[in-house]
Amino acid sequence: MKVGGAEKVQRLTVEDLSVHYGGVCAVSSIGFTVEPGESVGIIGANGAGKTSTLKALMGLVPRSSGRIRLGDRDLTGVKARDMVRHGIGYVPEGRHVFPGLSVEKNLLLGAYSRPWDKETDRQLDEIYALFPVLREMRERLAGALSGGQQQMLAIGRALMTRPRLLVLDEPSMGLSPKLVGSILDVLLRLREDGLSLLLVEQNAKLTFGATNHCVVMENGEVAMSGTSAELSHDPRVREVYLGL
Fold first, then answer.
1. Checking DSSP bridges between strand 213-218 and strand 39-43, what pairing results, if any?
2. Would the pTM count as exceeding 0.85?
3. Is residue 1 part of a domain?
């Protein structure tokens, strides 16, 4: 099963990215790449600059500096609303589904930038195969779903954009351990299908399980990076990431 645009994945390159809020530096000249088909996690303690990095990448907050490229295309000046047209799907922190619309209408909103065709129908069926509970609740209002079901809906909606890269901000927030395991299973399936992933997540088990490379942030800077397997056993990560 090929959910999203995994057959067209391209390298994401982030260079010299900085974010300031007033006189406070939240992100300081960081850089990283997500290779085609790679799954990368950004980890760190609260306030390390992780979410600000994703929001700056997506154009949701102003960048003080930085360059964003997907493949050979420079996305630095692209507005947030147009990022999806260039192949980046986004699952925001807090889900942000449309509570007054049905599950299916929420999903179809993910395909708003393309003409409706048989491919859209096929993709909707693939999302329902990935998340069977959404098929069962396709006519239910999104606001009536549980937190875990809304998270599945938010991921499904982003996949309906047929992204080359899927960006997720805290997908396990507020979920039970069982549902966190379900989200991990989905991310692993997407990774196996070759879709590139960029993940910010507080749950260390989920992050190291879902990714093959991690960037560790501290005070708005990259403190270290490496394979997820290496970092999961590094005592320095416990100090920077968990504050221990």
1. parallel
2. yes
3. no
Query: Does some domain include residue 209?
Result: yes
The letter for the amino acid at 43 is I
What does the block give as tokens for 175? 């979920």
d(CA 170, CA 211): 14
3-state helix, strand, coil in the chain (%, to 5): 40, 25, 35
Instruction: Work out whether strand 24-34 and strand 12-21 pair parallel, antiparallel, or are unpaired.
Output: antiparallel
For the chain, residues with pLDDT lower than 70 are: 1-9, 115, 240-244
171 exposed, middle or buried (CB, 10 Å; 0-12, 13-18, 19+)? buried
Structural domain count, the chain: 1
Q: What's the rounded Cα separation, in Å, for the pair 160 and 106?
A: 10
Instruction: Flag whether 196 is in a domain.
Output: yes
Contact between 135 and 188 under an 8 Å Cβ cutoff? The reply is no
- In this prediction, residue 204 carries a pLDDT of 82
Burial of 118 (0-12, 13-18, 19+ CB in 10 A): exposed
Q: What domain range is 84 assigned to? A: 6-241
Task: Phi first, then psi: give them for residue 214, nearest 5 degrees.
Answer: -135, 145
Domain of 155, CATH number, reads 3.40.50.300
